Amino acid sequence: MKRILAVAMAAACVVGASGGLFAQTPGVTDTTIKLGSFIVQSGPVAFIGVPVMRGAQAWYNYVNDELGGIHGRKIEFLALDDGFNPANTVAVMKRLVEQENIFALVNPLGTIGMAAVWTYILENKLPVVSPHMNWLTLASPTVPHVFALQPNNESFGRAAAQYAVKELGAKRVAIAVVEDAMGTELLNFALDELKLQGMQPVAVIKYPGTETSFSAYALTLRQSRAEAVLLFSYVSDAAKLIVECDLLGFKPKFVGINTITLQLYDLAGEAAEGVIFPGFGTDPQDPTSEAAAAMRAVYARYYPGELMNAYAMIAYVGAQMVTKALMDAGPNLTREAFIAALDAFTDWDADGMIPPVTYRPDDHYGIKTLWMNQLKTVNGVRTAEFIAEWDWTKHR
Amino acid sequence: MLAQLIVSGLAAGSLYGIMALGLILIYKTTHILNFGQGDMAMFSTFIALLLFQSYGLPLLAALGAALVTGGLLGIVVDRGLLRWAKNAPVTSLFIATLGIGMILQAIALWMGLIDSRPFPYVLRGRPLFIGDVVLRQHDLLVFGVALAVSLLFFIVFKFTKVGIAMRATSQNKRAAQLMGINVGRIGTWSWALGLGTGAIAGCLVAPIVFLDLQSMIFVMIKAIAAAVLGGFTSLPGAVVGGLVLGVIENLFSGYMPTAIAPLKTTFVFTLIILVLVVRPHGLLGERSAGGHG
User: Fold this and answer.
1) Which residues, 6 or more positions from B239, have their beta carbon under 8 angstroms from its beta carbon?
2) Residue A3 lies in a domain
3) Most B CBs within 10 Å, among A47, A50, A210, A215, to test the B interface
């Protein structure tokens, strides 16, 4: 009996030391905070997952190594590879919650994985901060413990419609949209926004994602005499359509979404000149930004020789958001204090790296302001030039 | 609008037609439907792009290299792979061609074909205006190539020994063999010519749809449809089928309301089924051909 008691006490001491038994808050001990994530590191989407992982890891390492952690606690960032396969995401989440007992889910990547574990996250009331996805469900309706960061399809769809009407002054707006979940969501928000402005689109062309021939669509657009065309397309389809319109001598103002990048120039050539599209982050290689320079220095310390790209940047900023909230929550860290700290975020912009983020208990939307850019040739160099800030909630 | 839709449709249709010619050529002599045709065309086109962009080869030389790659690929596929499985049922070989396509996709991915790449036009000047109708120079090239390839095939089949041997093989393999035709070699010729034609189609399609791992597959599906429409064994039928398909598609998306327009592919395939009900051998298919001899 004595022996059993001794074993039990020893076991209790071990568990106590790791903080699992006596600590009230999951994942928090006197010396550590355990944060979990799913970020693909293998397969075709790894080209996004690897920089996301590195961006977040660089900042958490820096906080541990240089800032002494958060109120004396070191961060354990446990990001697991789900292979961008929702079935794996389910297994990864169960391990993070049930075995690793994480404090919060931070920097997870990908809508399809998140959709697969969404109910599980709600059931477990697991805090989610800085998710890297444009999924509307994260933000609407508000979930008390989930904080979206990146703009979603509501932002992109409404902002594109508003920008065309209010800023470009278009009286005739047409919409070209790919027939899938993303396109349909964008289309519905844009239609609703046009309706709020008392307008109807002069043409809506829907094309399947497998489309190879865009000439008929370009003709329909030309016939509609649209002044602005909203492009709810992936970059290569957008390029095909723009080229066909250009061929017909039809040159409206094109307003795209965040799928548009400088690659549009490569694909469509001169026809891409003047296309407007939204962004929501400073280029980490921007030579004029001090915040970007500081970020690059930290990144280079942990990943020497690796070029920091936009995926690494948004993950780094997301990690900064997490540590700020942990810091603001105070030394007695609980999930409630963490959530309250996030709910008090006001115009936080990571030193200008992203548009300002404000959270309130009924508003976990994240970035609402989009930075509108335009493809322009400056001194013979094809660039994306910043032209305006656009917060769709302020243009209703 | 109508004239423009028809002209653009003919341009798209010529591409389907050229791609279909390659498919049918292989099918006629080997009775294998090459499901990997799109991927094989993608691969040859990608080689041309690499040679042009990374190794600075002149465009015409790079396009020539695509043709050669297509031909060599045909020889490798036939001699190196399918020949070893010659006793397998033909339907299994269909699946083997699909597998070869996937292998080529993996190789292209490994070689760096990750996202859409622009492919240069051979002719990219000012488009021509005929009244209200716009015609780009590339479209003229496509019409020209479609015509030239069809003529070339006509001459090969009508006047050359290889061509006559191919026709004989397609009509009756055993009898051809008994007449002293090397049926195996004829098969290799068909694969080489078929994939060479595929490479031509790829290089003509890529400037329009850009080059990525999947972009040729959708064109190939249209090419299969064009081939069926034209009667699977007829080379002129493939071209006619392609042209009809391209025009119908364009008219459909041009004139149908938005709610229905995305269903154009559905409409096209429904139409093909109807054609097959009325004319089981397609528009120009031969009633007796297509059997296994």
Assistant:
1) B14, B17, B18, B20, B21, B146, B150, B230
2) no
3) A215
Query: Which whole number is the average pLDDT over B73-100?
Result: 90
User: What's the rounded mean pLDDT across residues B192-197?
Assistant: 96
A→B contacts (Cβ < 8 Å), by residue, are 44, 47, 179, 203-208, 210-213, 215-217, 219-220, 223, 235-236, 239-240, 247-249, 263, 266-267, 269
Neighboring chain B residues of A263 at a CB cutoff of 8 Å: 115-116
Query: Does A223 sit within 8 Å of B1, measured CB to CB?
Result: yes
- In Å, how far are A131, A208, A326 from A259, measured between CA atoms? 18, 17, 33
**Domain CATH code at residue B219:** 1.10.3470
Q: Given CB atoms, is B137 within the 8 Å cutoff of chain A?
A: no
* Mean per-residue pLDDT, A250-269: 92
Q: Full-prediction pTM beyond 0.90?
A: no
Q: How far is B254 from chain A (nearest CA, A)?
A: 5
Q: What is the CATH number of the domain that holds A263?
A: 3.40.50.2300
Residue B283 — pLDDT band, cuts 50, 70, 90?
confident
Other CB atoms closer than 10 Å to residue B85's CB: what's the count? 11
Note the Cα B274 to chain centre separation in Å: 23
| Residue A174 to residue A192: CA distance in whole angstroms | 14
pLDDT reported for residue B135: 87
